[in-house]
Amino acid sequence: MTNEIFDEQTDLQLKVLDEISKISETNGIEYWLRGGWAIDFLLGKVTRLHDDIDLITWIQYRAQLEEELIKAGYEKVPVKEEFRDRQSDFPKGIVDVTFVYIFRSDDGKLMLNGLPEWVWRSDSLLPNKYSLNQISARALHPKQLLEEKEVYEQIGRRIREKDSESMKILHQIIDQNLF
Question: Is 77 helix (H, G, I), strand (E, B) or coil?
């Protein structure tokens, strides 16, 4: 793989993404990549090592998704009380996977379940699939990914080096219309 960062963790994460993609497709569950893997799929290459896999899906898929992941050998682990309505964590081996759940409000706004004050961009859910290592997945709009990073500063969360680097890459993706 030319010009790509690759190690055992990356390989395992890509295998998990492939498995989740197949589970989702078989069960008619839509999902979108979020965070670093979203950036990598938008670019079609691995840009850095990732700590975990962050995914988004509709709240109505939650029960079915959790059941299918458990059947496939994922372990559902408890999350903090304040996150229970909005996310599920599913490690498989050393790969950490987090699904967060979205819904449309009565007036059509896209929102994170359990956090109604966070209204997402109307164009957050890109319709096209992007490919990386023969895996296809949808990703969040780069402007949504960038807004999330920018909110970190507003809520007092420390911007990590990887967040700063991701923000630079997201600006390039947006400026060059690479999505």
Answer: strand
Tokens 């700063």, residue located: 164
- Euclidean distance between CA atoms 179 and 169, whole angstroms: 12
How far apart (Å, rounded) are the C-alpha atoms in residues 63 and 136?
Answer: 23
Backbone angles phi, psi at 8, to 5 degrees: -60, -45
Amino acid at 32: W
- Residue 72 phi/psi, 5-degree rounding, is -85, 5
Q: What is the fold, at CATH topology level, of the domain defined by 8-141?
A: Beta Polymerase; domain 2 (3.30.460)
Q: What is the mean pLDDT of residues 25-44?
A: 97
51 touches 96 (CB < 8 A): yes
Nearest-angstrom CA–CA distance, 126 and 49? 24
* C-alpha count within 13 angstroms, C-beta hemisphere, residue 27: 22
157: Cβ contacts below 8 Å, ≥ 6 apart: none
Q: What is the pLDDT of residue 4?
A: 58
For the chain, give every domain's residue range: 8-141
Q: Is the per-residue pLDDT at 94 higher than 60? A: yes
Instruction: Kindly report, residue by residue over 99-139, the tens digit of the pLDDT.
Output: 999 999 999 999 999 988 889 999 999 999 999 999 999 99
Element housing 111 (H / E):
strand 110-112
The alpha carbon of 147 is separated from its chain's Cα centroid by a whole number of angstroms, namely 14
